[in-house]
Design a protein that fits this description.
With 191 residues, the protein is α+β, with helices and mostly antiparallel strands. It is built from five helices and seven strands. It has a seven-stranded mixed sheet, sandwiched between helices.
Length: 191
């Protein structure tokens, strides 16, 4: 099936020039958003500390295709559910800069990241966790094809109290993510 969707963002590896952009993006609650503010971080973190690509996960910089401006970043890290050699999955997370939110970039970035991980790794499962009050993220994950699996009680410490989280997953065989190519076309696939 061909999509009329025009690609509006893409990923590139994290580079030194991105560090100052992301340091500013995580500098305050108004920049991170209410569900990602965990307090101030040490200044001057390097590429490795910020999550450059590695065997246990990584971070990609999200840029708008129209002008290459940095709109955020997507990252993933390994989660273990049993013997680490065979029972692991990727957990994904996303940060879209405050001025870019509400414009569909988050949905497109998660679609692209999910497709990237299914295409380039052996993972069977990709999971995402979001706050029980973050309705926008829950709706986005549902649109992409993630299945809600349940509530993780008091799982995240943020702003002086424990917060419940919801866990979602997408399995390789039930993936209905629309892979998007550089020319803006995609097709429904199973990975």
């Amino acid at each position: 099936m061909v999509s009329n969707h025009k690609v509006r963002c893409r990923f590139r590896p994290l580079v030194e020039a991105d560090l100052a952009v992301f340091e500013q993006a995580y500098a305050s609650r108004s920049d991170t958003g209410e569900y990602q503010w965990f307090g101030h971080s040490p200044p001057g973190r390097g590429l490795v500390e910020m999550g450059a690509l590695g065997s246990e996960g990584g971070r990609l910089t999200a840029v708008a295709t129209d002008d290459d401006r940095v709109i955020g970043s997507a990252f993933w890290f390994r989660r273990i559910w049993g013997p680490p050699e065979t029972s692991w999955c990727w957990e994904i997370a996303l940060h879209i800069h405050a001025v870019e939110r509400g414009r569909g970039f988050g949905t497109e970035c998660i679609r692209l990241l999910t497709r990237y991980l299914f295409d380039h790794t052996l993972t069977q499962r990709i999971q995402a966790i979001t706050d029980v009050e973050n309705v926008a993220a829950q709706q986005m994950l549902g649109r992409i094809g993630f299945t809600g699996e349940g509530k993780l009680r008091a799982a995240q410490w943020r702003e002086g109290r424990w917060h419940d989280q919801l866990i979602y997953s997408l399995l390789r065989h039930d993936s209905v993510v629309m892979p998007v190519t550089e020319d803006g076309h995609g097709h429904a696939g199973t990975g």
